[in-house]
Amino acid sequence: MTVTVEDIRKAAAQLAGRIVRTPCLRSETLSAMVGADVFLKFENHQFTASFKERGALVKLLSLDEAQRRRGVIAMSAGNHAQGVAYHAHRMGVPATIVMPVSTPFIKVQQTRQLGARVVLHGQHLAESELKVHELVAAEDLVLVHPYDDEAVIAGQGTVALEMLEDQPEIDCLCVPVGGGGLLAGMAVAAHATRPDIEIFGVQTRAFPSMHALLNDQPLECGTTTIAEGIAVRNAGRITSAILREHARGILLVDEADIENAISLLIAIEKTVVEGAGAAGLAALLTHPERFRGRKVGIVLCGGNIDTRLLGIVLQRQLVREQRLVTLRFEITDLPGTLGRIAGLIGEAGGNIIDVTHHRLFLDVSAKAADLDFTIETRDAAHTAQVEETLRAAGLKPRRLSASGS
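The structure assignment produced for this chain is given below.
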């Protein structure tokens, strides 16, 4: 059996009124930045902040009464977990979710709040899957696979139907891919609707499982990524077969590219996405030549990012843009010096975030000290102006790198 556009249209009818029909809107600013017409599908607006509700609900609706009474089980890094837990609870179906121990706390907490039993097991999804099979055998549970299931794939494919109904001029899709459920479903729906549309998947270089499989390359995975939602070591069997036929290719992006995309979406679109949700935009920013002049649809597939991590990402972006810098001064340790430097920075328009006074470093004289000023500026040019003001006053600021050296 494979997934057809008729399956996806049936899934769309089943989902109508049960999930949010999320908007697909053109981004004026991002379009100007990349030289393409960029359309964003806001799947982070779903109740559980992810597209995963679609496939989870379609699968649950396919179960008979006996299967529903037995209960369901899934392995997930978070978003599939919440989709299954939410809709299973609404349907009165017991749900068990096995999650890697590294899953962000917010996703674990939200899954429990939605009524599911959560079992934390393994460092990554492949180890969680082994636990799932143990529990299926021991407790006679029904598996709701996160991606390698025809009903799930059909549900995810409804994203493309909605996008092309709302924005029929889209001629290219750029879709995050882990196990491949979203990309496979969207590819089937899109090519049935518009045969000439180009479809790209996007993976992080840390977990390039589908890229390696489709290109017959050995798989080498990292240990961690900000895009844990697509950190899948075992690409799907059903999904990969579909993608061999329908996908133009899988693009790889780095962690810094994803962080940049998360920050831009907050700054420009005022919308919060997790790492996986930003992967599509990261690909446009990393490979602009592939998309220049095109009408590109991007899926913001999830918005479940830990607030602490989000704060770190935004701070790191300020560092990359040279809007947040640390300047070190080696000074004679005399009264008034700190105040003089602070006054010069303020007159130049810099905002002082933090000051650290080092007297015990052995690479400076005992009568001297190192002063570190962390300052915020408007942009890189303004930072350079602040430094020039300090030098003109006879000071010798040394900009520290992000590693503190």
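Interim note for the steering committee: The radius of gyration is 25 Å. The mean pLDDT is 92.
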